[in-house]
Amino acid sequence: MIFKSQGSSIKKSNSISSNKLKDIYDLDSYEFTQKNTGEIFVCSKRKELDLIELDQLLQTVGWSRRPIRRVKRALDFSILVVGLWRHDEKFPRLIGFARCTGDGILEATVWDVAVNPVYQGLGLGKELMKYILKELKKIGILKVTLFADAEVVTFYKRQGWILEPRGSKCAFWYAN
Amino acid sequence: MIFKSQGSSIKKSNSISSNKLKDIYDLDSYEFTQKNTGEIFVCSKRKELDLIELDQLLQTVGWSRRPIRRVKRALDFSILVVGLWRHDEKFPRLIGFARCTGDGILEATVWDVAVNPVYQGLGLGKELMKYILKELKKIGILKVTLFADAEVVTFYKRQGWILEPRGSKCAFWYAN
Fold first, then answer.
1. Residue B7: pLDDT band by 50, 70, 90 thresholds?
2. What confidence score (pLDDT) does residue B8 get?
3. How remote is the C-alpha of A74 from its chain's centroid?
4. Which of A114, A130, A133 is nearest to A2 (CA)?
5. Does residue B145 carry a pLDDT above 90?
């Protein structure tokens, strides 16, 4: 996934009434408005995801498909699962996603950060990450880690992530 | 933690009867014997850890202390916690440790790999990692990740870990 723009053309907004926001997206949801078009986007850690829709989203960013059954289990055992929705009162559409694994206290690792290419460049990826860090802070996590693909290293660096602290390297092991 | 030796002076052994091994270290435990001294070491994912002893072990490798309460919670929410013991029928001593977080199906991340410096250079760190990968494979995990400190990058490389696949970088974020 490539976040094309450094700037942001979205801002936090309150266009949806708090009752309606809670009804559709549940508690702890945050909305943003695109300055030019007035389109509304919402981050939510509670609104349930449709796994088919998630699979389609991940395909738009070019990721290989994973069996739905395995994805379901992975989400069930994640400590935080966040959807980014293009708001619609009847049919909110999933246009972004991220999740974290971890022990919920000392370590949290961010995985599968994705924003539908159609909506990249607006600053939504940045808001999604801010939302995740805020929610992790709420549960007392002081350090968050992730493995950044080569294309998004700059994206994370700009947001204050430290790359390879003290010469650390990421290491992957694949089963045969 | 620095694993000093490339070689190994330990080998898999069967010095402890399987009943006794199970009694002391529970199921899925593996023992190793040091070729020169006959000392026996056991990897176990089930034998309960004394948190004070674990804290002392982590101090021997120079890690900053963490509140025991937080460590307990972190272990409770880890998907795999492994102790490496110097065998003694009455008082096995914890001389190595590692744990994994993850969703238990798609992602597993290894943390806190430590071997008491007195026992480094025998190949125990390598056996500890082999044990972890074997146990993760058992539950169907096909990809394992870790953040390798600069000093141990070579250690992991030698064991077949891929460093920074496709230019990936590890990124850390610290709460203020």
1. low
2. 72
3. 15
4. A114
5. yes
**Is the distance from CB of A97 to CB of A78 less than 8 angstroms?**
no
Give yes or no for residue A3 having a pLDDT over 70.
no
Residue in chain A closest to B155 (alpha carbons) equals: A171
Alpha-helical segments (H) within B66-152: 68-76, 124-138
* Active-site residue identified among B25, B30, B119, B156: B156
Q: Chain B within 8 Å of A174 (Cβ-Cβ)?
A: yes
Q: Quote the distance between the C-alpha of residue B67 and its chain's center.
A: 20
Does B156 qualify as catalytic in the annotation? yes
d(CA A78, CA A163): 24
Closest CA in chain A for residue B77 = A103
- Are B112 and B132 in contact by the 8 Å Cβ rule? The answer is no
Q: Is the Cβ of A105 closer than 8 Å to some Cβ of chain B? A: yes
- pLDDT tens-digit series, residues A151-174: 999 999 999 999 999 999 999 999
Task: Name which of B71, B112, B169 to mutate to probe chain A: the one with the most chain A Cβ atoms within 10 A of its Cβ.
Answer: B169
How deeply is B43 buried, as exposed, middle or buried, from its count of CB atoms within 10 A (0-12, 13-18, 19+)? buried
Query: Which stretch of DSSP H or E encloses residue B95?
Result: strand B93-102
Burial of A104 (0-12, 13-18, 19+ CB in 10 A): buried
Percent of chain A at pLDDT > 90 equals: 81
Q: What is the pLDDT of residues A12-49, one digit of tens each?
A: 888 899 999 999 999 899 898 988 888 999 999 999 99
Indicate the residue of A70, A104, A171 with minimum beta-carbon distance to B163: A171
A154 touches chain B (CB under 8 A): no
